[in-house]
């Protein structure tokens, strides 16, 4: 899990203005990645109690594909079984190397919202036209129902990592 010190915005805060600033096709690609990423992470949480970082791409023909890398062993002195930061770095490098094969991509990972002391699903989507959109979905375990409680999806800051030179 990666630490994240930024605060998520309220539910739809910034979403309408973001959508108005990009083409309809770009908005559709990024929203498709966001929805698919959140749904896949929620499914993995429900099924396995956690999830490894993964990526999604919108291929040039519009098909959405899942991209995964093998987990690296966590460093000495770490409680984790794998190094999530190394996996995210590997995913980003793989996406950069193959960026001509797709028009949009997103990296999905589990983060800790430090200021809120909450786990969250983080999706950072990027389009080849330079458009970015990132969101966080806080979650917590519900011991009573033995399921997961999800908070409000909020916008988050993001920097380009795939279409950079």
Structural overview:
It is a single chain. The protein is α+β, with helices and mostly antiparallel strands. 27% of the residues lie in helices and 32% in strands. It contains three helices and eight strands. The chain has helices spanning 15-20, 24-48, 84-97; strands spanning 2-4, 54-59, 64-67, 102-113, 118-127, 132-142, 147-150, 154-156. Strands 1, 2, 3, 4, 5, 6, 7 and 8 form an eight-stranded mixed β-sheet that branches. The radius of gyration is 16 Å and the shape is globular. Residues 4-14 have low confidence and may be disordered.
In short:
Helix content is 27%, strand content 32%.
Q: Which band does the percent of strand residues land in?
A: 25-35%
> SSE order, as H and E?
EHHEEHEEEEE
The Rg value, from CA coordinates, equals 16 Å
Q: How many E strands?
A: 8
Cα separation of the termini: 27 Å
Helix content: 25-40%
Low-confidence stretches: 4-14
- Helix- and strand-based class? alpha+beta
Which features characterize this protein?
8-stranded mixed beta sheet; 3 helices; alpha+beta; 165 residues; 8 strands
């Amino acid at each position: 899990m990666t630490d994240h010190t930024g605060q998520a915005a309220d539910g739809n805060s910034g979403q309408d203005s973001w959508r108005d600033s990009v083409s309809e096709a770009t908005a559709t690609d990024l929203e498709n990645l966001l929805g698919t990423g959140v749904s896949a992470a929620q499914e993995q949480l429900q099924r396995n109690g956690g999830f490894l970082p993964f990526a999604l791409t919108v291929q040039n023909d519009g098909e959405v594909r899942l991209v995964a890398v093998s987990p690296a062993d966590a460093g000495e002195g770490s409680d984790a079984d794998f190094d999530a930061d190394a996996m995210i770095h590997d995913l980003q490098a793989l996406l950069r190397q193959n960026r001509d094969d797709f028009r949009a991509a997103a990296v999905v990972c589990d983060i800790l919202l430090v200021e809120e002391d909450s786990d969250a699903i983080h999706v950072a989507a990027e389009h080849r036209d330079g458009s970015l959109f990132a969101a966080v979905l806080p979650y917590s375990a519900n011991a009573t129902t033995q399921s997961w409680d999800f908070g409000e999806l909020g916008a988050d800051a993001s920097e380009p990592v795939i279409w950079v030179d």
